[in-house]
Amino acid sequence: LGLEGLGLENGKNALIANSPNDFAQAILDLLSDPSKASMIAKNGAKHINQNFNTNLVFKDLISFLKKIGKF
């Protein structure tokens, strides 16, 4: 629920779990599969850089401020 709208996908660019125990198990699974851990880390970094870099955030902020007449 807290990650909705962020474009994250469990096992692709993030670890998503519904309970602390599930999250702990997902971490243990990654510790036993370094190639999967590396893939998720690379995909996660790519996702962040493509969707949440400073330029995009400021562009969205300026657009929002113009819509509400504050810029």
Task: Name the descriptors.
single chain, mainly alpha, 71 residues, 0% strand, elongated
Can you tell me about this structure?
It is a single chain. The protein has 71 residues and is mainly alpha-helical. It contains 3 helices and no strands. It has helices at 20-31, 34-51, 54-67. The two termini are 32 Å apart.
Topology:
Layout: H1 20-31, H2 34-51, H3 54-67
Low-confidence stretches: none
- Evaluate the radius of gyration: 16 Å
Content-based structural category: mainly alpha
**General shape:** elongated
| Main beta sheet | none
Helix-strand topology string: HHH
* Total beta-strand segments: 0
Helix amount, in percent? 55-70%
The rounded distance between the terminal residues' Cα atoms is 32 Å
Summarize the structure.
By secondary structure, this protein is an all-alpha fold. Helix content is about 60%, strand content about 0%.
